[in-house]
Amino acid sequence: MAGKKKQAETDPNFRIVCQNRRARHDYEIIDELECGMVLMGSEVKSIRANKISLEESFARVEDGEVWLHNSDIAEYPQATYLNHERRRSRKLLLSRHQIRKFAENATHDGMTLVPLDVHFSNGRIKLQLAVAKGRKQHDKRDALKKRDAEKSMREALRRRR
């Protein structure tokens, strides 16, 4: 995540539009990949206006293609009759090699494809997709304790300097 923040601060052509904050809490991220999305014009306009939500979305490999399901992109009011469906399935653009690698990892027990964020990269809309393993409740608590301990250590070092 620190890499994304640095990239967003230094690169004027990079902007995060939407993040799935629950994903890093509910899942243990194993591998990440940036991919494109097949979108309609009204969807692009809505995403530019930050009208997208990834809270309940997930990705699935179907017939050798990766599809994003349940992502909510609000309708664009100026699009009139050319508008899109809010929660339609959207095709993700990956090479065959990447699909094969991700599909193999995602079929293992307890593994799933989770979208982490939607961002602009050089004017194009990209989706950060991750292969993740679901965490149990006690794993979530352990992760929070570990994160708090690291934060307090960093603060102590900062005060010491």
List keywords for this structure.
161 residues, 5 helices, two-stranded antiparallel sheet, Small Protein B, Chain: A, alpha+beta, 36% helix
Number of helices: 5
Residue-averaged pLDDT: 84
- Name the helix and strand elements from N-terminus to C-terminus, one letter apiece: HEHEHEEEEEHEEH
Give the full name of the CATH homologous superfamily: Small protein B
Low-confidence stretches: none
Outline type:
globular
For the record, the CATH class is Mainly Beta
Largest beta sheet, briefly? 7 strands, antiparallel
End-to-end separation: 26 Å
The radius of gyration computed from the alpha-carbon positions, rounded to a whole number of angstroms, is 18 Å
- The count of β-strands is 9
> How many separate domains make up the residues?
1
> Helical amount among residues, as a percent range?
25-40%
Briefly note the CATH topology name.
Small Protein B, Chain: A
Strand order of the largest sheet: 1-8-9-2-7-5-4
* Helix/strand structural class: alpha+beta
